[in-house]
Design a protein that fits this description.
The chain is mainly α. The chain has 2 domains: about 220 residues, no CATH class; about 200 residues, no CATH class. It is built from 16 helices and no strands. α10 runs parallel beside α13. It starts with 11 loop residues before the first helix and ends in an 11-residue tail after the last helix. About 50% of the residues are buried.
Length: about 450
């Protein structure tokens, strides 16, 4: 592979697109993988087994969110080292991150297998699915180290500007997930555990394929003797990774917790409201894929600029990312508005609920542009090691603006008030991050962390 960062090999907008498009495709495939597994469980085993899988999903999402946050710290340090052309430092960061990730995954797997019944009891799992839910949870905990390694591998490669390999590995894992989950559920007595083992084995196969691929091309992240020697965590680098990653993890987890509060509010308006919420959330998630991907790209390219001694180009990174947000996210927003009725009708059939979901979608979908702008500002600041203030702004926009506005307005104007809470929260996120960027962060001297 090229040992030169993408920003050194051509126009920045082109490098952004080369980075972005495969990552967006990977996100879609990742969602498809989970969807395939759910479809196979529901059709092969029935509604109760699907419910057993669904009830443990918040726990899985919690660990995934936490791991994504932690790996963000690794990707920033790898990006800075790669931007500076320091491949030895790239390996040191990767080795420390891999060693800690595998250790953390093993601990969580061991504790989770024994604690699964207590965790599910805390979630209030209905008695008729408790046995299957425990079986699925324990199988998922066993496969947790593979999931952690899978998430980290993609993040480290992104730090070096590589999104094509993660896409290729995700395509393989998605295909294998469908095949393995179907085989293990229909051809073995594993039952619902087959879904967990099928997903885990698909991820292990993806990791093995990636390891072999990197070794074949003599990639700096190839799992060789030098990298294995560096898997004993370096305390100094580990502190850097945690300092950068933990605030990001807290931010992502806070968003997940707020979603539980929103669901509770929506449920109080009845099943039609819940169905409409599900449809609108599905559409909104897909529209926000580009915004999240652009923010990750801004963070990676910002880190590479800083590592390469080109902090003067960080403004160009911001401008390019903002244009991408307007064009890519804006295009999906426009399509969602124009075709709002047939889009929400993909998820629900009742005409009255379709009307309701369409109205709610019109309220909230355009605010994805503000969400994208806010995450771009925080992504670039994170690239320099500034993580605490962006995290506090993001968490504050959720718990001091989004949720209070949603609660207050839902009491005043009903269900639409919840979606106006989203709009208010995204607006606060954008204004808060922009203010900190312009009036505080830009006045600081930006230096490399590695």
């Amino acid at each position: 592979m090229s040992r030169r960062p993408q920003f050194q090999t051509g126009p920045l907008w082109r490098a952004f697109l080369v980075f972005l498009l495969p990552m967006m495709a990977q996100n879609i495939l990742q969602s498809l993988s989970a969807t395939l597994s759910a479809i196979i469980v529901g059709r092969s085993l029935g509604t109760l087994d699907l419910a057993a899988v669904a009830t443990f999903l918040p726990v899985v999402m919690f660990f995934i969110a936490f791991m994504i946050g932690l790996s963000a710290g690794s990707s920033v340090l790898v990006g800075q080292a790669f931007g500076a052309g320091r491949m030895e430092m790239v390996q040191r960061v990767a080795g420390t991150s891999i060693g800690v990730t595998l250790g953390l995954g093993a601990v969580i797997a061991g504790v989770g297998v024994f604690a699964a019944p207590a965790i599910l009891d805390l979630l209030g799992v209905p008695p008729d699915i408790r046995t299957d839910a425990i079986a699925y949870a324990r199988a998922m905990f066993v496969m947790m180290p593979a999931l952690f390694f899978y998430v980290l591998g993609a993040s480290l490669l992104r730090g070096m500007g590589d999104t094509m390999r993660p896409l290729a590995i995700q395509a393989l894992a998605t295909l294998l997930t469908g095949v393995l989950v179907w085989l293990l559920i229909t051809q073995t007595p594993l039952g619902v555990r087959g879904a967990a083992y099928g997903q885990g084995l698909a991820q292990i196969a993806g990791v093995v394929a990636l390891v072999l691929w990197l070794r074949a091309v003599r990639h700096p992240l190839a799992l060789n003797r030098a990298l294995l020697a560096r898997m004993r965590p370096d305390p100094k680098l580990l502190r850097q990774v945690l300092r950068l990653g933990l605030p990001t993890a807290v931010q992502i987890v806070a968003g997940s917790l707020s979603a539980l509060v929103i669901v509770g509010l929506v449920n109080s308006f009845g099943s039609d409201a819940t169905a409409a919420y599900g449809a609108v959330s599905q559409v909104q998630n897909y529209v926000q894929f580009p915004a999240l991907s652009i923010a990750i790209a801004a963070s990676i390219f910002g880190a590479q600029m800083i590592g390469g001694g080109r902090s003067d180009r960080l403004g160009e990174v911001i401008r390019t990312a903002m244009v991408m947000n307007l064009v890519l996210t804006g295009s999906l927003v426009a399509l969602a508005l124009i075709f709002s009725r047939p889009v929400v009708a993909l998820f629900i059939t009742d005409a009255g609920v379709v009307d309701l979901a369409q109205r709610l979608l019109h309220i909230v979908i355009w605010s994805s542009l503000m969400f994208g702008a806010g995450t771009i500002f925080s992504g670039v600041m994170r690239a320099s090691g500034t993580v605490l203030a962006p995290m506090l702004i993001a968490v504050g926009s959720i718990f001091l603006v989004e949720l209070p506005v949603a609660v207050w307005l839902s009491g005043r104007i009903g269900l639409p008030g919840i979606w106006w809470g989203y709009v208010a929260g995204f607006g606060a996120l954008m204004l808060g991050q922009a203010a900190w960027y312009w009036f505080v962060w830009r006045k600081r001297t930006i230096t490399s962390l590695v």
